[in-house]
Write a structure and sequence with these properties.
The protein is of the alpha+beta class. The protein contains 5 helices and 7 strands; from the N terminus they run H-E-E-E-E-H-E-E-H-E-H-H. It is globular. The N terminus is likely disordered.
């Protein structure tokens, strides 16, 4: 009996707290907050999404607005597939966004040079590593800057 109750609770809790883990969900992108954070409609409810495996410049940082515009050009107003990977410390859903043409928004932003592959949270992602290396070599996006400041360093400087 106790095992059955735990199983039922284990299946129900992810739905009670928003999006289910490891699910592919069709959602509509209704807002682009910054380069790596979107808002989508899921079952008529807004849900904040943090794109997994990447870190874009912040709004007040160099290239922050360009990263936001790139994400917006690719995803805003489109029905996309969201592949969820849990939640972050801010209770945002972590996920990969698959665009209508089958491309990964996360990978496309790295490919275009608007963000860093976030090694800390996506270690060993060889696809992201290759995309970032290529963007750096071709000096795409923020890589045109000879010394771009990673957002995690920029955030640290803002706290000082």
């Amino acid at each position: 009996m106790a095992k059955s109750l735990l199983l039922v609770l284990g299946l129900a809790l992810p739905f009670a707290y928003g999006l289910c883990l490891a699910a592919d969900l069709p959602v509509l992108v209704v807002r682009v907050i910054d380069g790596d954070t979107l808002e989508v409609l899921h079952s008529q409810h807004p849900e904040r999404i943090r794109l997994s495996g990447i870190d874009c410049p912040e709004k007040g940082q160099a290239y922050g607005q360009k990263a936001k515009h790139a994400a917006s050009d690719l995803a805003f107003g489109k029905e996309v597939t969201l592949q969820t990977h849990g939640h972050d410390k801010y209770k945002r859903t972590i996920g990969e966004v698959i665009l209508p043409n089958g491309m990964s928004l996360n990978q496309e932003l790295v490919k275009q040079g608007w963000c860093w592959w976030y090694r800390k949270y996506a270690p060993g992602d060889t696809v992201m590593e290759e995309l970032e290396t290529e963007a750096r070599e071709l000096k795409k996006g923020l890589w045109a800057d000879p010394l771009p400041v990673p957002p995690w360093e920029w955030r640290g400087l803002k706290r000082l």
